[in-house]
Design goal:
The chain is mainly beta and 231 residues long. It has a single domain, classed as Beta Barrel (Porin). The chain is built from one helix and twelve strands. The protein has a twelve-stranded antiparallel β-barrel with strand order 1-2-3-4-5-6-7-8-9-10-11-12. A hairpin with a 6-residue loop joins β7 and β8. The chain is globular and about 45 Å long. The two termini are 29 Å apart. The N terminus is likely disordered.
Length: 231
């Protein structure tokens, strides 16, 4: 594997970071842009992520966008909106709307509308752990090699956690499992961040899988390095 020097990989990311939203952008909203490079895997190329959130109670909201520009000029993206209504300090109801494409998974377009409940098991300055379960509808248009368009009900389970080990090191883990008629999708991403001036350098490893009916699962993995605003 031929990996470019990190200084070259982070150049575009550092430029993107100058566009980052600050906490003063909109009252109680916070967000940022992270940019980097997918070093290896099925979707090599440049990755840009955007996040914007409002953590007010009892109603909190989050927007996100993920874009990967592949080496072969392919594009994969995901856009989503997730509101939460908090019943207590730990328990909440959530909704989610998202649309994505994923050429490596043979998906031309997939939309999801979900609703469910979640619980914040741990929420401190150095640790966070939450779990969610929900149901909704998913509509998937696959590319011509599979030639399937399907709309069906879906059930999901999700887990997310992060922990700050020291002043300079942070670990993150996100996992998502969803099942519908003749469709099972799984994703997991683990990352480690190192605090640097202006933000953090993050290394991530991601696994994604999609299984349709009795066909063999299509598995995709990638590793990436990025510059993140914040820590």
């Amino acid at each position: 594997m031929n990996i470019k020097p990190i200084s070259v990989l982070l150049g575009p990311a550092l430029l993107l970071s100058s566009l980052t939203f600050s906490t003063n952008l909109l009252a109680d909203w916070t967000g940022g842009i992270e940019g980097g490079q997918v070093l290896q895997g099925d979707e090599k190329g440049s990755r840009v992520r955007f996040k914007l959130s409002n953590s007010d109670r009892p109603f909190s909201q989050a927007f996100y966008a993920d874009w990967i520009r592949g080496e072969g000029n392919s594009n994969s993206y995901e856009l989503g909106y997730t509101p939460r209504y908090w019943f207590t300090e730990q328990a909440y109801a959530f909704g989610e709307g998202s649309v994505r494409t994923a050429e490596s998974l043979s998906i031309d377009r997939q939309t999801r509308l979900l609703a469910g409940v979640g619980i914040q098991l741990i929420d401190t300055q150095s640790q966070s752990l939450f779990a969610e379960a929900g149901a909704g509808q998913v509509s998937t248009n696959y590319d011509a090699t599979i030639a399937v368009t399907d709309t069906t009900g879906i059930a999901i389970a999700r887990l997310g956690a992060w922990q700050i080990l020291t002043e300079f090191i942070k670990l993150e883990l996100d996992a998502d499992y969803s099942t519908a008629k003749d469709l099972v999708q799984t994703s997991a991403e683990a990352g480690i961040s190192l605090r640097v001036p202006g933000g953090a350098v993050k290394y991530s490893h991601r696994f994604r899988s999609i299984a349709i009916g009795d066909a063999e699962a299509n598995n995709v993995t990638d590793s990436s390095i990025s510059f993140n605003y914040g820590f």
